[in-house]
């Protein structure tokens, strides 16, 4: 895992690119929900993908959670997956505000819609700064109400050996609604990403 | 006498990007801070004419810095350079006394335009 580690300069560079992309995504979300999104500095960590199911399970142990996953594919081997995690406690409030009806099919539809607003804006912003362009797979939705939540999570994690975990918390001020975004990038794409970061750093 | 300008951002890349994007004719001594607390310490210990201020930062964020500048009636101009481009945030920083809002990554053209507008170059 150490050979995939980021130098402090690379980490700083990636954090700033993510910060800019996150700002664009938050602006979109704020307009979509007609509210204000409180931005925080994202936490970046290189993790073993095998630990992710455990990580998610313990993080959302006490609550109902839904996870929406979106795969992305860019030029020159850059690819990965974003996972949006929603606590379902306050999903009903948002559903009412946005005019979705109160059933689980509509809830899934709404979370998929919000996820695509957030993740595609975020990823397009990131791709632009990396001078790359991404295409997207169809979103997958997994709810902790599903019996085989853990199994589905494990399947998702299996596809990546190593992952760059970027925890981004979108917190809305007008009403309580937290969602987390996790960006997973496989090992070979981490290497590619490091090369791109180095070329950006060489310009400054 | 050259003006002292402070660049406050938690990212080294962002500080370097900004420094490199400043107009060549801008004659200033540049000092830097990597969070709001450091910025306030500098502002309280030396005369700074212009601040380029990021918003999303650890320790003390840009809004906190603007509030302190306002509360202490410090005599410096602030250009906010941020990725938090929500209209409400832009409105908030302008109300707190910022001179202008520039979205990240700040281009040399935009910085030059803003600095011309306010007679800084």
Account of the 3D structure:
The complex is a heterodimer of chains A (204) and B (121). With 204 residues, chain A is of the alpha+beta class. Helices cover 46% and strands 25% of the residues of chain A. Chain A has six helices and eight strands. The radius of gyration of chain A is 17 Å and the shape is globular. Chain B has a five-stranded parallel sheet, with helices on both faces. In chain B, α4 (87-95) links the parallel β4 and β5. The mean pLDDT of chain B is 96. The two termini of chain B are 14 Å apart. Chain B has 121 residues and is an alpha/beta fold. Chain B is built from five helices and five strands, in the order βαβαβαβαβα. Chain B has one domain: 3-Layer(aba) Sandwich (Rossmann fold), CATH 3.40.50. In chain B, α2 (36-45) runs parallel beside α3. Chain A binds chain B through residues 9, 12-13, 15-16, 19-24, 26-27, 30, 36-37, 39-41, 129, 200-201, 204, and chain B through 10-14, 16-17, 20, 55-58, 82-89, 103-105.
What's the quick description here?
The complex is a heterodimer of chains A (204) and B (121). Chain A is of the alpha+beta class and 204 residues long. Chain A has helices at 8-33, 52-59, 91-98, 104-129, 149-158, 187-202, and strands spanning 37-38, 43-48, 65-73, 79-87, 135-136, 140-143, 162-172, 178-184.
Features:
heterodimer, A: 204 residues, alpha+beta, Chemotaxis protein chec, eight-stranded antiparallel sheet, 6 helices, 8 strands, globular, B: 121 residues, alpha/beta, Rossmann fold, 5 helices
How many domains of chain A? 1
Largest sheet of chain A: 8 strands, antiparallel
* Number of strand segments of chain B: 5
Strand content of chain B is 15-25%
pLDDT average of chain B, as an integer?
96
SSE class of chain B: alpha/beta
Gap from first CA to last CA of chain A: 28 Å
* Alpha plus pi helix count of chain A: 6
